[in-house]
Amino acid sequence: MVARWIGLVIAGGLVAVLVSMTDTSAQYYEDRLEPAEIGIRDLPRMRIPEAAYVGNDECRLCHEAAYQTWLGTRHARSLVSLRSRAAMEMGQKEGITASCPSMSYQCLSCHGTASDVPAAYRGPGFRIGEGVSCEHCHGPGEMHVAAMEQTDPDANPAMRMPDMASCYQCHDPKPSHEHLNPRPFKAETAWRYIAHPLADERPEHEMDHGLMPGQLGIWRLRPTEPPPAAYTGSAACGDCHESSYAVWESSAHARATRGLRSEMGVWINSRVDRDVIGGPVKNAACLECHATGHDAPAAFRLPGFSMREGVGCEKCHGPGATHIEAMRQADYSLPQLGLVATPREADCMDCHRPKQSHRVLETPPFRYPEAWKQIAHP
Length: 378
What we know:
mainly alpha, Flavocytochrome C3, Chain A, domain 2, 2 domains, 21 helices, elongated
């Protein structure tokens, strides 16, 4: 009986993130299927949300403190409890038609997130197995993330701030749960336990220059020497090199990190390195070519710098703090005016070499002369 139950759970595709043997590549695939295809039953009707669900890994990029609070709560383990013996017995008494409670919307409506929406509204990083995730209470995050990508904090139409009354939508007394003998739910006490005020958070660009790479949650870091100078960010370069900045801003280099957040970026990472928590945006093996300064100590990332800008000016020309200071002092004696690199074809090939993991993209072979014309900024 137990073996059959385990088989049904795995076949259903709702494998909990806490199970060490989870195949996340399959998990991403199954979370992109329609509820009926996954095997979810007892669903009265499909719901069309106001935006797509993006998953907690996306929320974590800017809200690390809130993510860590969530990770320590029962919300993060709410779906796991649906696989307990008590849940199975409760499901039988309630007459659910699913193979087990973790496949029944009657249970998932409170123990899961977005199990009742079409597959098109579940983004590439979203996992039903996260249980009661950030978006269960705050709503789908697609529009909020898009606003943050555009550095427009005021454009935040889709997020909501729940109040204590909203907790009772799931935490109201249920006859089916009475035999569990839980303590009476008190919203005031529970609210303090899960509290994660925004005052504890910092925007990602501030985290970039305040925390070490390991503190930012970046995996697969290779030992390297500190850079010869601090990174300042491409906007600082644009103060003097406006035309060059405009060329960069319109190039694929400026969107390189965004590609890691795409469905294809998440899928490729899940195929080649699925053990990295946070996906490709936390994988140094990906950031080496899709970002700038990801491995630099915190002291070498100045205010104004953000890894989210992708392959910035300093990725090819070297960190710019010494150069900027030299220009302020009118000191033209420094080699290359304080910059450490003049990019060559070999430098481009460090990232644009053929990669087995990228073959699925079916992009044309990289040709240096043609590519250089597109980004030339004399």
